[in-house]
Q: What sequence folds into this?
């Protein structure tokens, strides 16, 4: 079996590697006291996100390029899930100030996810690796999907 990797496949593989390394590396410095990684804030979810990013790269490498886009999109959904689940609002009673404080303390993943795009200049090197990797996974997934459809 001969592996023939195109530019889109390499982008996807590099993105999966950067995502994996960045997820476990220092991402944010909280109040100058402690560095937090994505894995610290999203303990069970980080493994699903990494599994999906690697699955997209593996699908591209084994010449199943038309399916590589789906795990790439799935990885983004897992990463953005804390924001997406709170967009609808839900109930009319938000618990007031105490409810907001309780939510902020009980869901650190939501805070890290919100910080991901709002404080890009405050990242540690792992945050840049993670974010660039996630963008490359999505771009590579789209490129491999489009190249498979043309073939």
A:
């Amino acid at each position: 079996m001969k592996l023939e990797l195109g530019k889109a496949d390499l982008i996807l593989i590099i993105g999966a590697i950067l995502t994996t390394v960045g997820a476990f590396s220092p991402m944010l410095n909280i109040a100058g006291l402690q560095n937090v990684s994505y894995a610290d804030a999203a303990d069970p979810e980080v493994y699903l996100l990494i599994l999906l990013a690697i699955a997209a790269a593996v699908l591209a490498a084994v010449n199943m390029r038309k399916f590589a886009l789906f795990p790439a999109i799935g990885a983004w959904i897992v990463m953005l899930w804390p924001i997406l689940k709170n967009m609808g609002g839900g109930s009319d009673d938000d618990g007031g100030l105490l409810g907001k404080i309780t939510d902020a303390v009980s869901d650190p993943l939501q805070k890290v996810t919100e910080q991901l795009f709002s404080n890009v200049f405050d990242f540690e090197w792992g945050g840049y690796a993670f974010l660039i990797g996630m963008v490359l996974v999505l771009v590579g997934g789209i490129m491999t999907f489009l190249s498979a459809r043309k073939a």
